């Protein structure tokens, strides 16, 4: 488990490219039969990836959590971004295909990840936040996530949004989680930009074509910075930071949040002419 500590807007404004990447980019998420996790001190969110290929992979425990098991005082949201898989939670098995989401509540002791086909393994992106209430484990397929079409070809942001963990979907203690699929010819996400000072956010970019990338914008609206993101990489976005991106092709991304509230509409928008 890696740890990433908070950085203030002032110090972030002066960071080199390497320092920005070291603090905010999660470069490696998916390695066969391993668990990669990063502990962010923004709202104590854990960001990770699991790719079971040759064997089942359990969600382990970490000394840094000071807990008897991973979900003793935590909840977790899981979205599969690749081949079909299945997850077993305390003996109950859930089939989870691409773009399906599984929420596992506080108190679950044994979570095991598998792939249906080793030649096309599942890739599970995970977000975990502290929890003080135990909500039931629940699977939601992409078809059940009330996909909503938004944007337009003229603004290069025609997209479909899937909401999974939120106040009107899968209930959680503080997690909010979903994903966005950009249509062919569209490249912009989350523009106009916004911040939400009451919660951090994390992105996981996936289905980025080979030899393409996403230019991710971060920083304060009047002091923006950028990072080039590749397929299957994640970004940590502080509450004070914008989080937008523009790709060299269309792509998809998971968005997830934790913090003071769960309102999907809690956004402080920034007009495009005010960005610097």
From TrEMBL:
Keyword Zinc carried by entry: yes
Keyword annotations from UniProtKB, A to Z: Isomerase, Metal-binding, Zinc
MF (Gene Ontology): 4-deoxy-L-threo-5-hexosulose-uronate ketol-isomerase activity
Cofactor binding, per record: Binds 1 zinc ion per subunit.
UniProt function note: Catalyzes the isomerization of 5-dehydro-4-deoxy-D-glucuronate to 3-deoxy-D-glycero-2,5-hexodiulosonate.
PANTHER family assigned: 4-DEOXY-L-THREO-5-HEXOSULOSE-URONATE KETOL-ISOMERASE
Protein name, entry field: 4-deoxy-L-threo-5-hexosulose-uronate ketol-isomerase
Species whose genome carries this gene: Emticicia soli
């Amino acid at each position: 488990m890696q740890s990433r500590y908070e950085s203030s807007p002032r110090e972030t404004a002066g960071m080199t490219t390497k320092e920005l990447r070291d603090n905010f980019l999660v470069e490696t998420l998916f390695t066969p039969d391993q668990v990669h996790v990063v502990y962010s001190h923004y709202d104590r969110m854990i960001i990770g990836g699991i790719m079971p290929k040759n064997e089942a992979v359990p969600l382990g425990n970490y000394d840094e959590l000071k807990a008897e098991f991973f979900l003793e005082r935590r909840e977790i949201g899981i979205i599969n971004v690749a081949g079909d898989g299945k997850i077993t939670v305390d003996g109950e098995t859930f089939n989870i295909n691409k773009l399906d989401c599984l929420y596992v509540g506080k108190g679950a002791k044994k979570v095991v990840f598998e792939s249906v086909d080793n030649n096309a393994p599942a890739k599970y992106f995970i977000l975990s936040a502290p929890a003080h209430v135990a909500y039931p484990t629940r699977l939601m397929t992409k078809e059940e996530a009330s996909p909503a079409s938004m944007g337009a070809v003229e603004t290069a942001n025609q997209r479909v949004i899937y909401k999974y963990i939120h106040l009107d979907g899968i209930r959680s203690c503080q997690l909010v989680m979903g994903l966005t699929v950009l249509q062919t010819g569209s490249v912009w996400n989350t523009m106009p930009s916004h911040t939400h000072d009451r919660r951090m956010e994390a992105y996981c970019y996936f289905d980025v074509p080979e030899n393409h990338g996403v230019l991710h914008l971060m920083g304060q609206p009047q002091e923006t910075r950028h990072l080039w993101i590749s397929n299957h990489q994640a970004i940590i976005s502080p509450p004070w930071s914008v989080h937008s991106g523009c790709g060299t092709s269309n792509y998809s991304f998971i968005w997830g949040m934790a913090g003071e509230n769960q309102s999907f509409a809690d956004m402080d928008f920034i007009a495009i002419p005010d960005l610097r």
